[in-house]
């Protein structure tokens, strides 16, 4: 028997590739389903965290407050501007506080704003301290009368969660939920195999985030075409909803931002898995080709 025949008759010494236990597949699916629910809850908390951020909450609070402002026609608007201008010119500081008890200040330069911008300017200065201090603390600051405090808290109860304290609480809840999500995600990755580990996470992200992105994107488009929320005085519920929908645009924007990031993360993981698997396949194919060429060269030399 020749050397080549003896070499080819040898059995491979590599260890066989043991298949995964079947319960690993079941465990992967269980972890993935649990991860979907936890991830949906965490993304919702992230939306709340983003809404309660000062840059989003103060404009949102201002929009809600100004919904009840009756602007009137052009003549009444001009009359109100003339009255404000007269008060500002008569003031020694050339500024006034249009709302007694609140640190909202108007100057002569502010009279160059449009009526909508002027209303936003005034009540934006009301919403800012309400966010920073909270409704209860601001009520105590504005009045020492318990009845007046209770009335103020009742009227502003819709803003209880939109505060610096609420933002901090939402952040703590989101961080705690993130730790739980990462723990369950680690289980889903552990019970997966190969590049399927990335694919599992990607599918979970897309399944959970895509519906949310479509929902908030649709709301954002609907609210963006609401027109001027303060351009007229609503006379019925339908007109009120039509006028008010643009006021809640910051909520839709926050949702789009959070869910779009999650969708991008899912697509990125899918792309990474595809590129990694393709690259390894090419490397393995080239290694096999080099081995075949080396074996052919040795056979030719020995013969």
Task: Give structural notes.
This protein is mostly helical. The chain is built from eleven helices and two strands, in the order ααααββααααααα. It has helices at 3-9, 22-51, 54-66, 74-90, 115-133, 135-142, 146-155, 164-190, 196-224, 237-244, 249-302, and strands at residues 95-96, 106-107. The chain has a two-stranded antiparallel ribbon. The longest helix has 54 residues, at 249-302. The two termini are 13 Å apart.
Record the SSE blueprint.
Elements (H helix, E strand, L loop, with lengths): L2 H7 L12 H30 L2 H13 L7 H17 L4 E2 L9 E2 L7 H19 L1 H8 L3 H10 L8 H27 L5 H29 L12 H8 L4 H54 L1
Antiparallel strand pairs: 1-2
Helix pairs in contact: 2-8, 2-9, 2-11, 3-5, 3-11, 5-6, 6-7, 8-9, 9-11
Key traits:
mainly alpha, two-stranded antiparallel ribbon, 11 helices, disordered N terminus
Quickly describe the structure.
The protein has 303 residues and is mainly α. The protein has helices spanning 3-9, 22-51, 54-66, 74-90, 115-133, 135-142, 146-155, 164-190, 196-224, 237-244, 249-302, and strands spanning 95-96, 106-107.
């Amino acid at each position: 028997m020749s050397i080549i025949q003896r070499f080819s008759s040898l059995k491979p010494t590599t260890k066989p590739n043991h298949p995964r236990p079947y319960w690993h597949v079941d465990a992967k699916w269980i972890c993935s389903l649990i991860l979907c629910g936890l991830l949906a809850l965490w993304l919702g908390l992230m939306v709340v965290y983003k809404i309660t951020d000062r840059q989003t909450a103060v404009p949102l609070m201002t929009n809600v407050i100004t919904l009840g402002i009756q602007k009137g026609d052009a003549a009444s608007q001009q009359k109100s501007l003339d009255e404000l201008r007269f008060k500002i010119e008569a003031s020694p500081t050339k500024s006034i506080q249009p709302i007694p008890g609140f640190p909202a200040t108007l100057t002569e330069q502010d009279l160059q704003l449009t009526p909508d911008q002027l209303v936003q300017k005034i009540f934006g200065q009301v919403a800012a301290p309400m966010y920073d201090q909270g409704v209860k603390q601001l009520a105590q600051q504005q009045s020492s009368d318990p009845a007046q405090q209770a009335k103020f808290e009742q009227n502003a109860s819709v803003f209880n969660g939109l505060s610096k304290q609420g933002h901090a609480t939402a952040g703590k809840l989101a961080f705690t939920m993130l730790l739980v999500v990462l723990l369950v995600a680690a289980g889903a990755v552990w019970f997966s195999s190969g590049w399927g580990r990335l694919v599992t996470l990607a599918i979970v992200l897309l399944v959970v985030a895509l519906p949310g992105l479509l929902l908030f994107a649709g709301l954002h488009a609907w609210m963006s075409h609401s027109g001027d929320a303060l351009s007229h005085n609503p006379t019925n519920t339908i007109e009120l909803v039509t006028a008010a929908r643009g006021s809640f645009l910051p909520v839709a924007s926050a949702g789009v931002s959070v869910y779009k990031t999650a969708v991008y993360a899912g697509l990125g993981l899918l792309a990474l898995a595809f590129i990694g698997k393709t690259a390894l396949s090419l490397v393995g194919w080239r290694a096999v080709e080099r081995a075949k060429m080396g074996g052919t060269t040795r056979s030719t030399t020995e013969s």
